[in-house]
Amino acid sequence: MAVYKIVEIGDEVLREKAKPVKEITPNIIKLLDNMADTMYEANGVGLAAPQIGVSKRVIVIDVGEGLVELINPEIVEASGNVVDTEGCLSVPGMIGEVARADKLVVKGINRQGKAVTYQAKGWLARAFQHEIDHLEGVVFVDRAANLRKAE
Ligand code: NI
Questions:
Q1: Residue 114 labelled as part of a binding site
Q2: Which end of the chain is more exposed for a tag (fewer CB within 10 A), N or C?
Q3: Which residues bind Fe cation (predicted)?
C-alpha cells in the first residue's frame, strides 16, 4: 500500500492532455492500487492519474457502490442534464455547482486488459465525467457556477 501526494491546481500536469495506456504493465497495476489507496486515504470519491502527477489515462472511482478502475476511459453515450455540487481533491476546500449528463455509457479497459462497459447514472455518472475531464486537462472549477469555500 502506498499513498501518493495529490497535486493541486496551479500544477501544469493538471492542464495536460493525458496519454493513453498502450499496455498493462506491472507499473500500471501498481498505479491502480496506489491510486485507490490515495483516494480512500483522502476520503475522495474519485481520482485521476494526473492528480498524482502521472499524465496517463487512468481513473479510479468509488461513490459508495464499490471500486471502479478504468484505463483509457471514453464516454460513448450521454443523456440528461443535472446540476449538483462538486469538489475536487486537487482544489481543497472549494465547491461549486456543475451541470453534468445524468446517464452515461462509458467504455475502457480493466486491469486484465479486457474491454469493459459501464452504464452509469447519478453520482457515478458525475464522477466519471469529473475524472475524465481531468484526463483532458479540465478541472471542475472551469465548469462550476457559484464557486465558493466549503463550509
Ligand atoms: Ni477532481
A1: no
A2: C
A3: 88, 130, 134
Q: Is 134 annotated as a binding residue?
A: yes
Q: What is the mean pLDDT of residues 107-114?
A: 98
Q: Which grid coordinates are listed for 116?
A: 469493459
CA distance 123 to 135: 19
The pLDDT score that the predictor gives to residue 1 is 73
**Nearest CA-CA partner of 61 in 79, 81, 40, 75:** 40
At 9-62, the pLDDT tens digits run 999 999 999 999 999 999 999 999 999 999 999 999 999 999 999 999 999 999
Residues 106, 133: contact at Cβ < 8 Å?
A: no
CATH topology assigned to domain 12-149: Peptide Deformylase (3.90.45)
Q: How far is the CA of 115 from the centre of ligand 1 (A)?
A: 24
Q: How far is the CA of 88 from the centre of ligand 1 (A)?
A: 4
pTM for the full model? 0.97
